[in-house]
Amino acid sequence: MIQSEQPMISVQHLNKQFGPGCPQCMNPGSRKLYKNFCTVCHTVYSCQDVSFDLYPGEIIGVVGESGSGKSTMMRCLYFDQEATSGEVYLQAYKDGSRNLFAESTQQKRYIRNHLMGKVYQNPMLGLRMDFTSIGNIAEKMIAAGSRRVSEMETRGMELLEKVHIPIHRIKEAPKHFSGGMQQRVQIAKALSNRPPVLLLDEVTTGLDLSVQASVLDLIKALQRELGISIVLVSHDLGVVRMLADRTLVMLDGRVVEEGLTDQILEDPQEAYTQQLVHSLL
Amino acid sequence: MNSLLTIEHLSKTFTLYNLDQQIEAAADVSLHVNEGEFIGITGKSGSGKSTVLRCIYRTYLPQKGTIRYQSAAYGEVDLASAPDRVMIDLRKREIGYVSQFLNVMPRTTARELVTQALLEMGKDPQQAAGETERMLDHFELDSKLRDSYPATFSGGEKLRLNIARAMVKRPRLLLLDEPTASLDHASKVKVKTLIEQLMHEGTTMLGIFHDLEFMEGLCSRQYHMQDGRFHEGGTPEAAGRFLRDQKV
C-alpha cells in the first residue's frame, strides 16, 4: 500500500537567498519582488518555500524556465550551497530522523559520498578532467571508504560498460571525450557508491539526439533495475514526459504547480504552466 | 449489485489564460457504474465524452464534483481529489485507459511494452513473459513485429498493441476512448472477443464508441452526451431511445 510508504527524501520549506534582505523583502508573506529579485536591497530569492517528497524508486521531474531556482535547489540538496533555511530528511540516513541541513560538515560529506549521487549539466563540475575515467570512479569510491584496487577496478569497468564507454578507452581522461561520453562517465561516477538517491541536473541538455536517447534509456533502466529514486531537472518536457510519474513546475523560486506528469502537460492549471506547455513544439 | 464508480455533479472547465477564454467541457455530469457492467457513452465529437473519461483517469483535474471509486486496495477513493501517489498506484494496478493514440516509449519493442505493464504490477518476469505472448498471440501480432519498435507499425497494429497492453493487466476498471475507431472488421471482432472475455472475468468497462453496432451486443447501459451534459438527465432509457431515433 502506497499510503504507509515512507518518502526516500523529504524536502520541507527549503529557502535559499543571495543577499541580506531588507524590510521590503524579509517577510515571506508580504514580500514585494520583481520576479525573484528585491529592487531595494538587490537580494535574490532563488528558492522560496520549496517542499516535496520523493518516494523509493520514483522519478520526479522538475521543470521551469532558466533562473527559476531548479539548479539552486539541487545544489542545496547536494550541499554544494548552503540553504538559508529549511529541512531535508533522507530515509537512508538515520532512518530519516535528522535534518540533513543541520548536520556537521563531516556528516554532510559522508551523506554526499555514501548516500547520494549527482550529475551536473556541466561535466567540468562533476569530473576531474585530467584523471582517467576509471580514476574518476575510483575517486568517488575511495571517498566512500573503498580501499581495494581490484574491487574498484571491477566496479569501475562494470559501470563504464553499463554506460557504453568502450573498455579500451577507460584509462583515457574525460577531457578527450565527447560531451555525451563525459556525461555518461559522470553518471557512472555518480552510481559508483550505489546511492539510493540520484540528482540529475539537465543531463541531456546539449547532447545530440542519439546520445540523448542512450542516456535516457540508461536512466530508465537504472530506475527499473536498481530502484533508485531520482530528481530529474530538465528544460525538456519530452524528457520529463518520458521518465517522470510526477512533476513540479517552478517559477521565480517557487513551486507553482505539481501533479501527475500527464495532467501537468494535458491540463495545466497555472498561467505560467500553460505558457510553458504551449511552448512545446 | 455493488457499485464500482459513482460520479456526481462533475464539472470541468478549461481556463485558457493566454486567450482569456473559458471552455466548459463537462457540466454537472452524474453517472453510476456497477461492478461487471459495460457502460457505453455516445455523443457527437466535442460533446465532452473524452473529458469525462480523462477526469476519471486524472489526466484532467475536475473543478467540481466527486468521482467515487471502490478500490480493491484502498477502499473508497475520490479520484477527483486522491493524492497523486495513490492515483499512480491505481493506474498501475486497477484502472486501465485505452485511447485512439498509442503513446509509445521510444526504443521499446512491442514485447517489452506489454511486459513492462505487467512488471509494473509486480508480476514476476517469467509469468509476465508468458502472459505477454498469449496476449500478442490473441491479437495475431506478427512474430516479426514483436521485437521491433511500435513507432514503425501501421495504425491498426499500433492500436491492437495499445489495447493488448491495457487488457493484459486485467484491470478492475477499463476506460476505452474509441479504441476501435480505425480498426478493420477482423480486428474489431478480436477486440470484441477480448472485451467479452474481460467482462466474463469481472472487469468493469466504461467506453466511448462511435460504432453503435459494435456497442449493441455488449453494453449493459448507455448514456448519451450533448454539449457537456447527459442527454435528458442521463437516464439510460432516454439514451437508448435517442440512439434508436438516430439510427432511423
Automatic annotation (TrEMBL), chain A:
This is Putative phosphonate transport system ATP-binding protein. GO terms for biological process: organic phosphonate catabolic process. It comes from the Bacteria. InterPro entries: AAA+_ATPase, ABC_transporter-like_ATP-bd, ABC_transporter-like_CS, P-loop_NTPase, PhnK. It comes from Paenibacillus rhizosphaerae. PANTHER family: PHOSPHONATES UTILIZATION ATP-BINDING PROTEIN PHNK-RELATED (PTHR42764:SF1). Residues 28-277 form the ABC transporter domain. Keywords: ATP-binding, Nucleotide-binding. GO terms for molecular function: ATP binding; ATP hydrolysis activity.
UniProtKB/TrEMBL annotation, chain B:
InterPro entries: AAA+_ATPase (IPR003593), ABC_transporter-like_ATP-bd (IPR003439), ABC_transpr_LolD-like (IPR015854), P-loop_NTPase (IPR027417). GO terms for molecular function: alpha-D-ribose 1-methylphosphonate 5-triphosphate synthase activity; ATP binding; ATP hydrolysis activity; transmembrane transporter activity. Keywords: ATP-binding, Nucleotide-binding, Transferase. Residues 5-248 form the ABC transporter domain. Its EC number is 2.7.8.37. It is an enzyme of class 2 (transferase). The keyword Cell division does not apply. SUPFAM superfamilies: P-loop containing nucleoside triphosphate hydrolases (SSF52540). GO terms for cellular component: plasma membrane. Pfam families: ABC_tran. This is Alpha-D-ribose 1-methylphosphonate 5-triphosphate synthase subunit PhnL. It comes from Paenibacillus rhizosphaerae.
